[in-house]
Backbone:
């Protein structure tokens, strides 16, 4: 059939395929072409993607790896792999395209859990697994970033926890919110149904090699204390690919269900804001909130997920919440926690305008101070210059995250406690009484610590 007689849509698809196979473009350009195609055609299933996993893409993924990270079961570090980098990448590409590459089990280690006596499991993939996962993640991201809803914020490019907090602030203060459903999914990354996940992937991806390698990573298992354990459910622990797979799973199980089905049954306004597996939903009507709590749990159960009851609740929150709480004889309206901050109802300084107050979650701050105490105790023999530089860096990182509108008192308290710990442990480096407050203040003048300040405006 002549070109001019073929359906326009078929001609467009043919041109798209030609563009994607062009060898004269960089990988980034090809990924952008795929993203544009995915955005234009929400029903498109991509049949040819794995050719993008080439030396250029893997080299970029290698350069993006952080230095000095712990090695996985292969015991190979980034520095060691770099010693023969180009030959190593050529060999890796050969195995990948022969379908001879087999991901190794994730090495599981345990580290102290901040603020608790429990230990937190940590998964460390082998170095080449990190590279391949990163490459596959870039391909998946190019496609699914066009599909994900605007109110999904976790593990996505050009989006942050502060963006999610800003949207919550705007929704509660300006969209008639009266009720909040605060929710948390129990052990989400360990309980993803792998078969369901593969079905979700098949909605957009028809390249069998991409699907086979993702399945291999899902099934690669865990190596703990010399013992291998198969992974029948969940996403790869510590894997670079886990965040995009997690977003994809919740996109189909929660986000689309809420937007396309549940929202249409609400009598008032409603909005779901999600950051990874933590989410809050704002409602105008109490009945909508109560019904969502029930139907959401049923929906998640269908896909092997459970909510954490102790972290899931319905509460009255918004411009009228404080007034109604006092009418019931309660001193304050309820609060909710999200992304490290406790949110509470308050007013402007003149007492006339409703505002959302925020403070750092107490348990998180206690845990962070405990970690700093452990660090300064262990490293107090370092040079004063190194101790002060590291402490300053830790404080700047704390302010960058917690220094949001309304949280000035919490970050000031944190800075004070850090200074007191610093004073205590520097004083233990010499004879008793060798450090007093006069000397400590002179030290702070010589090596000033960053002052606590609001870094992020949530209005």
Residues:
């Amino acid at each position: 059939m002549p070109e001019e007689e073929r359906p326009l849509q078929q001609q467009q698809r043919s041109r798209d395929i030609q563009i994607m196979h062009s060898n004269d473009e960089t990988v980034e350009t090809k990924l952008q072409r795929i993203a544009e195609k995915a955005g234009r055609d929400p029903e498109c299933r991509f049949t040819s993607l794995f050719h993008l996993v080439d030396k250029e893409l893997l080299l970029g993924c290698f350069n993006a790896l952080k230095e000095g990270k712990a090695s996985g079961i292969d015991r190979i570090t980034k520095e060691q792999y770099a010693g023969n980098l180009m030959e190593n990448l050529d060999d890796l590409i050969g195995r990948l395209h022969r379908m001879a590459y087999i991901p190794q089990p994730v090495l599981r280690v345990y580290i102290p859990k901040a603020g608790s006596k429990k230990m937190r499991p940590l998964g460390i993939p082998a170095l080449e697994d990190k590279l391949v996962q990163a490459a596959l993640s870039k391909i998946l991201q190019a496609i699914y970033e066009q599909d994900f809803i605007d109110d999904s914020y976790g593990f996505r490019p050009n989006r942050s926890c502060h963006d999610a907090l800003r949207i919550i602030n705007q929704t509660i203060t300006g969209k008639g919110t009266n009720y909040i459903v605060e929710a948390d999914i129990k052990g989400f990354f360990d309980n993803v149904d792998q078969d369901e996940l593969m079905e979700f992937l098949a909605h957009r991806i028809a390249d069998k090699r991409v699907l086979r390698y993702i399945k291999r990573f899902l099934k690669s298992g865990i190596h703990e204390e010399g013992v291998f354990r198969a992974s029948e459910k969940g996403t790869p622990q510590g894997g670079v690919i886990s965040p995009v797979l997690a977003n994809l799973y919740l996109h189909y199980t929660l986000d689309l269900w809420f937007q396309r089905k549940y929202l249409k049954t609400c009598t008032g306004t409603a909005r779901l804001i999600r950051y990874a597996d933590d989410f809050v939903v704002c409602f105008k009507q109490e009945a909508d909130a109560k019904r969502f709590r029930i139907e959401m749990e049923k929906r998640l159960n269908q896909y092997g997920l459970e909510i954490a009851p102790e972290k899931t609740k319905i509460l009255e929150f918004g411009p009228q919440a404080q007034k109604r709480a006092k009418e019931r004889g309660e001193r304050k309206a309820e609060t909710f926690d999200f992304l490290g901050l406790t949110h509470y109802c308050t007013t402007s300084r003149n007492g006339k305008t409703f505002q959302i107050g925020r403070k750092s979650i107490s348990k998180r701050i206690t845990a962070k101070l405990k970690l700093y105490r452990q660090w300064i105790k262990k490293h107090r023999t370092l040079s004063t210059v190194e101790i002060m530089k590291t402490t300053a860096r830790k404080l700047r990182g704390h302010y960058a995250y917690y220094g949001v509108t309304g949280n000035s008192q919490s970050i000031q308290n944190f800075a004070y406690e850090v200074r007191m710990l610093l004073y205590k442990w520097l004083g233990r480096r010499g004879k008793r009484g060798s450090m007093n407050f006069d000397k400590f203040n002179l030290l702070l003048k010589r090596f000033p610590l960053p002052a606590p300040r609001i870094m992020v405006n949530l209005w």
